[in-house]
Amino acid sequence: MKLGYFVSHGSPTILVENVKWKSTLSSIGKEIKKEVNPDVVVVSSPHFFTFSDVHYVEVSEKLECIQDYYGFPDELYKF
């Protein structure tokens, strides 16, 4: 059996705020790398989607995120 983890990123403000969840999330990643050292990491997000019946796997170096939110600090719209 393969291991699987579900970890929610929470609010997008985690990118620009110094909150405890940010360090906790970082610790989770470090522990997984140390204990499991996975060969592959799969990330699922509703911010990358298609209206087609065909499903795609994105393997680009840099992903383009759909900015489908509003009301956050201006610096978040630069990602």
Number of domains: 1
Kindly, what is the distance between the CA atoms of the first and last residues, rounded to a whole number of angstroms? 36 Å
The major beta sheet can be summarized as: none
Secondary structure tally, helices: 1
Order of SSEs: H
- Shape designation: flat
Question: What is the chains' assembly state?
Answer: single chain
Q: Which strand-content bin applies to the residues?
A: under 5%
From the alpha carbons, calculate the radius of gyration and give it in angstroms: 15 Å
Per DSSP E runs of 2 or more residues, the count of β-strands stands at 0
Percentage of helical residues? 10-25%
Task: Give average pLDDT, whole number.
Answer: 81
GO molecular function, one term: dioxygenase activity
Keywords: Dioxygenase, Oxidoreductase
Organism: Candidatus Aramenus sulfurataquae
Protein name: Dioxygenase
Describe this entry's structure for a reader.
The protein has one helix spanning 20-35. With 79 residues, the chain is mainly α. It has one domain.
